[in-house]
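Our preliminary data section would be incomplete without showing what the modeling component actually yields. Below, a chain of 253 amino acids is followed by its predicted structure, encoded as tokens that our downstream tools consume directly.
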Amino acid sequence: MERRAARRDKDEESAEPGGERPASASALLTLNVGGYLYITQRKTVQRYPDSLLEGAVSGRTPCPLDADGHFFLDRDGLLFRHVLNFLRNGELLLPEGFREYGLLAQEADHLGLRALAAEVRARWEREQAATRESTFLEVTDQHDRSQGLRVFCSAPDFISRLKARIVQVSKSRLDGFPEEFSVSPNVLQFKYFVKSENGTRLVLKEDSTFVCTLEALKFEAIMLALRGGFRLLTNLDPAKGSIVHSDALHFIK
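Predicted structure:
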């Protein structure tokens, strides 16, 4: 009881005439971070006792003031909104497509917010892992004899499966997939129509009577992708009609 009374007397002494508290004792404060002004509650920036922000507000850590008397931090003002949201919510909430993890982790380190720095780096690692594990597939068709059909996949096993579906027939025998169409383990490039004057042609392995035109090869690649769990990213143009008439198709898995 005596302790509470003493605190109340001290608060009354610090109050201005009329019962109003001075601005320095207000529950709100303004932070100037790299020229960006943020208004928040003192208890928000004091959430983590060992942080630079808490030290500045409590007076333990020297912090310069701007011309208006606001605490000034020479840091990234735009990124600080994510720091403040973390202090307000107690969790890391970032907009979709956020990519500045390295910068945000650096800001958290400087401010002494170890919990935020750890969460940012953990999120960054998960994002990088997801990117590494994703498989990208691109099927492009220039509708041109000199360019033809190009199939790129970040996973070479898809290219191998596609090659296994196609064989070359010449003089009534199966010669396997023609390696002249293999640019690399990740790329197939069919640069011309796949039936020559001497009768050599590409066919589907299951049906040696079906001649593979470029359109048929493109359809085969699309169906193999969809059956393999790839998701189409490209917005199809209704004016193109069938999916095989699209100039470029992009898939992800």
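Confidence is low (pLDDT under 50) at residues 1-25. The two ends are 66 Å apart (CA to CA). Preliminary results of this kind motivate Aim 1 of the renewal.
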